[in-house]
Amino acid sequence: MRKTIALLALCSAAASARADEGMWTYNGFPKAQVERKYGVKIDDAWLDHVRLSSARLAQGCSASFVSPNGLVLTNHHCVEDCLQDLSSARKDFIAEGFHAKTGVEEVKCPVLEVNQLVEITDVTARVQKATAGLEGQKFGDALKAETGRIETACQTSPALRCNVVTLFHGGRYDLYRYRRYQDVRMVFAPEFAIAFFGGDPDNFMFPRFSLDMALLRVYDDGKPLQNKDFLAWNPAGPKEGDVVFVSGHPGGTDRQLTMAELEYQRDVSLPERIAAFSELRGAVTQFQSRGAEQKRLSNSLLFGVENSLKVYKGRREAMVDRAFYGQKVASEEAFRKKLAADPKNGPVALRAFAAIQEATDLHRNVRADVTFIAGTPGRMGEYWSMWSSPAFLTDYFPIARALVRGADERTLPDSRRLPEFAEASLPELTQHLFSTAPIDPEFETFKLTWSLTRMREVLGPDHPFTKKVLGNDSPGEVARRLVSGTRLGDLSVRKQLWEGGKAAVDASQDPMIAFARAVDPDSRAVRKMYEDEIESVVHKGSEAIAQARFAVEGASGYPDATFTLRLSFGTVQGWTEGKKVVPPFTTLGGAFARHTGREPFALPRSWLEAKPRLALDTKFNLVATTDIIGGNSGSPMVDRDGRIVGLVFDGNIWSLAGNYGFDAKLNRTVAVDTAAMTHVLDKIYGAERILGELLPGKKPQAAR
Amino acid sequence: MRKTIALLALCSAAASARADEGMWTYNGFPKAQVERKYGVKIDDAWLDHVRLSSARLAQGCSASFVSPNGLVLTNHHCVEDCLQDLSSARKDFIAEGFHAKTGVEEVKCPVLEVNQLVEITDVTARVQKATAGLEGQKFGDALKAETGRIETACQTSPALRCNVVTLFHGGRYDLYRYRRYQDVRMVFAPEFAIAFFGGDPDNFMFPRFSLDMALLRVYDDGKPLQNKDFLAWNPAGPKEGDVVFVSGHPGGTDRQLTMAELEYQRDVSLPERIAAFSELRGAVTQFQSRGAEQKRLSNSLLFGVENSLKVYKGRREAMVDRAFYGQKVASEEAFRKKLAADPKNGPVALRAFAAIQEATDLHRNVRADVTFIAGTPGRMGEYWSMWSSPAFLTDYFPIARALVRGADERTLPDSRRLPEFAEASLPELTQHLFSTAPIDPEFETFKLTWSLTRMREVLGPDHPFTKKVLGNDSPGEVARRLVSGTRLGDLSVRKQLWEGGKAAVDASQDPMIAFARAVDPDSRAVRKMYEDEIESVVHKGSEAIAQARFAVEGASGYPDATFTLRLSFGTVQGWTEGKKVVPPFTTLGGAFARHTGREPFALPRSWLEAKPRLALDTKFNLVATTDIIGGNSGSPMVDRDGRIVGLVFDGNIWSLAGNYGFDAKLNRTVAVDTAAMTHVLDKIYGAERILGELLPGKKPQAAR
Predict the structure, then answer these.
(1) What is the pTM of this model?
(2) Domains of chain A by range and CATH?
């Protein structure tokens, strides 16, 4: 899987754990269950060490520290934006790979933030007290104000990042305190052709043959970070049947949503996203045919779109599976029956079900306005995605909006600002705002034209917002005018507008600034309606249902994923599909067998040349029963001794249904074996400096 | 609406009629009901006259005779393929329009067939006797053999066309005998900019401002046809509240499908088609940006795709409407309850429901193979659509397959051939096969590359068929090789291969012929599986359910649409949507108010120049409560006196749900008023010759 460019789910849920199911919080890990099932004793020291060795890429991936000098392992597809930002028409680090043979060659990524989870504090009582008895807008406002206060108090320095995390749909609130690192440099990335060997056809498939790895280095105060906790490198990789753990940041699951919300996904959001992304895929594919440079510029978008498409299609497939969906329906019905028979917990929870249904129906009716006028800039991790404004699909728009809206918001006291403009959020906001990543006018015009056309289609040509945006012009004319006229590509212009504040922004005649200014009142109004009448209602209802569930069924499960650190366990194990038995390992030799010489099945030249030097029976990719989801990309797979044995980069096709439930028979994590990484760093890439750091004092041996 | 490029539904259904609901057969028209409701007496002479004045375009539209000299009125979008076929890079009849000021300027359309329904005969007893007691493959074979025998016996000349039509899901079989005309010439078409004013954004919308008209002339033996029956032209158009009738060929409705089949549409076929068409739309839009000639070549495909997308989205919207779908579920449940209580009719019908569910589930599992390996060349009207082979989206492929498969089939006795190669089908088959329409290699390569890529995605890169088709090559390489190598663009090559028969085809080294030869065994095998195990089972089951419905509920309704001639009735009437009242007429002046100067809201120069001469309050488009669906495009709207008052070209957005049921409050037919056609033919197009033919002896007056 590639890093999710979709929305992260806002809510999580209690669930009872079966088999190797579960994305467990570190403060709720079922140590006894693991010992009972596998005879493996996990103690608090083990947990602390693995937690502190784990890392989150704030833009949406997982990672781990693998040396005491700040070396971080993650997936190639997690650093593709950085490679793109560093590339130009003359040097394409995505196609050719990147290899810093010395420390000075390590180059800073314009936008990359590494987080290390240092502390978890339960703040449930405080949050629930602040919202007690409130409804709708008042509930939402109180919730935002209280979590804002907690986060601001916690975040005593820009080097920290504090988030109040909603767990179990509001059944629990924990404060997660991270060490934040923004100086992150590129160390190593292989060629795209092997990092994503098999391309979209093989994505979410197994057997698989991908070296989806990259190495970064965290710098602190201009020097490589000296970190105590890191995962020792096990160059042998795991064996079939070995117990393994995955420590990472699953982005979101929907396992405990109400049927009203799942029906909305099945009938509205999934099919509509699939249609929109399919159209964009068709358009980008043809944009690529304009030339090599256009292809280079748009590759990352294309792969993101194709990845999301496969995810959404897999989810939709699960939702329209009569048996799977039927189970969900039956399970909610059974719970509602219990509630109906429970005069203490029942009435509130049953009213909450009804309120969520009503809010979801309202959402169905206003979804076009919410999507195209408000967008989702308020969502965690969404602000800088161009998808936060699907009507204005250009890198310029979030910049313009940050300047326009930021100018207004920064005149307000901290507690009254939109969350993404609170003081605590500014380090992340400004890192993006002042990114040196290049922006290409032709590509931006293409994207903006497409998205304006789609906005006109969905809102309709007679919608007042469409008329405001387009006037009498065509989408292409508006896009060309905005893109060719704006000077926001110039970093100094952005800095001057940010520092000049409201006076500077109000005086600006930049067409993109003027455009963002013109649409901002509409956008804010629809966002407020959405937050007050839909989001708050669903949040409050979900909280009530979660509390009733705790009361009726007990609080023994794990919460739905929320892009916070989780630990999963399982074993290295293939699976059986009808008569087909899928073994757990592939080998380097398998990649050569699959090589056709044509994209996406073309191995890079470095591999073809190195073939005689390779031990072709070296294990390459592997599958395990650990429970993961999008956002886990880059997670370390560790053995019982806490050593890294694999690098998670994907799930199999059955893992896509994992958004709604875990099927231990079929759902598999896909990882790169450390044996393969060790061998190819040595034999293909001659990465002696890196190997010396991963395996101090050892000359690597081919491990099979 | 534009002419459907989707599959025509194979089955129809009984339904009880309410309000102005109903697409009535001419031999089942509810004369008494119309007289009761509207006081309008329709007699058999009226019906015979309107039937014989109605026409079908075999490629998927409706039309009518409007003069005694073979003049035929239909929609611009129904003749767009012809205009495209007649155009070239130097002369674009779609953009510029077409106007034959004299008879000699009337130019033959390469592929256009007009049918006039001359006789209907009930053959139910004969067909049902032939299939009595048979199941699965034997049922399907017997059905095909018997209908084939009936058609062959009926079709005593190539100038006739005979089809056994399945009505009421097999509750009734009628033999429809048509007069067939293949010499059809272009007389008049306005500029695309006004024919499709508002483009995709306004498609299926109202208020509307489109002159979606075209005039053809049927020639017989090289001279204009002399026909007794034609519709007199009423230049005043209808008034609000007038009773009107629509006589045309609705392509297909699914109002009486089982819930198993509707669920399959909701969950599988509609969302998957929407995704595929969305992707193609994105790709074609970008293909258009390559240049003016590429835009010209691909416009027709783009508009067809966009039209289908809007249809499918509207249908899906209806299917995921909780109330609408719930009604469907409740109605089937009520019928099943009646069946369960009916020992005579119940058991067979309930077993049929189960059999259809099973066949539909099987279809779900094998749908990728059915779509990409078999395609749908066996479906009526589908053979020459490039969509009959979604894996090989190029005009060359149906040609190659017709030659390869035809060479084999024509060695067999008529009764054992695939239906599309029976002697009775050859006039239509060869008209397409020997069409002079130009084929552009760049456009074909683009389409074929896209569809091969999609085939690889859906079947998977490891599917044996994918490997057979692509080998080690990329989709683009295969497409370029086939398109650049084939000589099938040369009409004489096609003729020589067709006439040379099996020996010539076997000896051919044309790469497209070789390709069609290679995939034909796979394609035939999957088609046979589909026909024997799915189609036949559904057909037999539907027949059993229809018979039980007749027995239990009586046979008073109208059958589901089947692209056969139907008559609908209703009144000219707007509608109310919440607080919004939509009046039934627009005016020519409204088009000028909507003119922005930018596509698709840019009026053609001829209109802008003529504006001072126009009576701007002339009625332009109108809506009525008549029950229509895709395929009705081009239908005449006639008044109680049998005079033409409008030209049906669309339905409103609510008409899309009409596939599943008729909502008299919202569902509206959209037509061009004869008042507007008369006025603009005079004032803008100076079409004196045509007006003289429509209104002999009169000088047209502006009618408002």
Answers:
(1) 0.92
(2) 24-113+182-254+561-694 (2.40.10.120), 321-551 (no CATH)
